[in-house]
Amino acid sequence: MRIAGFLKNSFVDYPGNIASVVFVPGCNMDCWYCHNRHLWQTEDQVKMSEIDTFLDKRVGFIDGVVITGGEPTLHSDLPEFIQHVKSKGYKVKLDTNGLRPDVIEQVSGDIDYIAMDIKAPPGGISSVVSFDIDENLIWQSAQLIMNSGVDYEFRTTMMPLLKVADIESIAKRISGAKRYALQQYRISKPKGDIKHVSMQLKPLGSAEIKKAAKAAERYLDNVIVRGI
């Protein structure tokens, strides 16, 4: 599998585990605030042999491997890569945007944790990802994940254009989900038609994010706030 970047040790990317993080190139979204753009657009690759050598030496010290991007489900050899990592004795966490429910279903029996990003409330996701998408795919993935038996979380980056009502709308749509995380937005290089706006946007204050979390709790038992 093509690999754009590799983080040897992370204490924050896989809840409750020490993990290595594999970043893959390519994405089927183009979110204006993406802070991984330099990775998913890169042509540079990390050799698989380098990752294998590291993982073979770290068995017993690292719990798992996170596969993120970019969008991992775009890679046809994702299932083989997951099985390769699992064969070394590691847990596998998959990060996804949910646009490929067919792939999520294909690999769900082999992964240990899945985190799916929900960019905006129902009806508003296309405005964030920069072009029209079939939102039904995202909600199909959400339902599939909730029924999969795999440990999971949904998460939303609290970019400044989101409102408390938007988060409540998302929470209502995934009512009953096991875990929902709100993540603080980080300023990135402006992108697209809202360049003149994004240059002026600052992260939402902690009080506003906590208010959004409180609204989400009307539909969800486990709402987490990160990065504030």
- Tell me which CATH architecture applies here: Alpha-Beta Barrel
Distance between the termini: 35 Å
Compute the CA-based radius of gyration.
17 Å
Let me know the average pLDDT: 92
Please estimate the helix content. Answer: 25-40%
CATH-defined superfamily? Aldolase class I
Q: Indicate the structural class.
A: alpha/beta
Largest sheet: 8 strands, mixed
The count of domains is 1
Main traits of this protein?
228 residues; alpha/beta; TIM Barrel; 8 strands; 19% strand; globular
Description:
The structure is a single chain. This protein is of the alpha/beta class and 228 residues long. The chain has a single domain (5-226), classed as Alpha-Beta Barrel (TIM Barrel). It is built from nine helices and eight strands. An eight-stranded mixed β-sheet has the order 1-2-3-4-5-6-7-8. Helix 4 (101-107) packs parallel to helix 6. The longest helix has 12 residues, at 135-146. The chain is globular, with a radius of gyration of 17 Å. The N and C termini lie far apart (35 Å). Mean pLDDT is 92; it is low at 190-199.
